[in-house]
Amino acid sequence: MTSTLETQPSPATAPLRGVRDVGVAIIGSGFAGLGMAVALERRGEDDFVVLERAHEVGGTWRDNTYPGAACDIPSHLYSFSFAPNPDWSSTFSPQSEILDYLKDCAERFGVMPHVRFETALESASWDDDDGLWRLETSDGPLTAEILVAAQGPLSEPSLPEVPGLDSFEGTAFHSAQWDHEHDLTGERVAVIGTGIAGLWTAWRLASEGREELFERDWVLNQWAKRLFDANGDGIISVAEAQPAALEFKQIADGDGDGRVTPYEYERAREFIIARY
Questions:
Q1: Nearest CA-CA partner of 220 in 243, 193, 241
Q2: Is there a single domain that holds both residue 32 and residue 112?
C-alpha cells in the first residue's frame, strides 16, 4: 500500500497565489520610472513593464516646454549615477537637452521594449486573496506582483482657484501645457506663481520685451525679490523685470561664455543681496 504525504511549500518556495501578467509594473517613464527600469535590467530582471500614458518617455521634461524651461539643479548632479554625462552644454541645462538625455538612457540601457506607450493607469487595487495588484489601464486590465508608482508629484497641472478665471476671455494656459501656437507679442501677460516655472517664464518673456508683464509675489526668493521687484509693491512690471533679467545674466555669466557655473551663480546671488 502506498501513501502520499501532502506538504505545504515553504514561504521561500511557495508559488504565487494568483497568476499575474508581469512581475513589476512601473507607472511613468520620467527620471524615477526609467531609473527603476534600468535598475531591474542591470540586475538581470526582465519581467517588468513601464506604463506611459504619453507617446514618448521623459516625464516632466517631455511635458514642460514653456519659454526658458531648464533645470534649477546643476546638471552634473541632476543625472543618473550610472550614466554620467560630460557633455552638458550648461550648468543648468535646458529642457530639450535633458529630454534627449532621458531618451538616450532609455535606448542605451534596453528599457524601450518594456514601455507601453499611450497606456494610462485608471485604477489599482490590491487583491489580498491572490497576492497581486489588479490594474485597470486604458489598454485593458493587467495584473502585477509589484507596483511601482513613479508618476511624480507634478504629473498633473494644478490650476489656481482665481475668481473669474473660468470667464476670462483672453488666452489662458498652464505652463506645463504651453500654447506655442499663440503669439504673445505686444500682449499683457500675467504669470501666476513664483516657482521655478514662473521665474523662468517671467525672465524669458521680460527679456524678449513683452509690452507688460506682472507677477504676483507669493513665494519669491528674497534675493530674487530684491532684483525683480525694485519698488517692493509685490508686482513685477516689465519696466522692472526686463533690465533685472539682463543685469542678472551679465552678472552671473561674468566671462561671457554663455554658461553659468555654480561659482558664477553664487557670486551673482551674493552681489544682488549686497546691492539691493
A1: 193
A2: yes
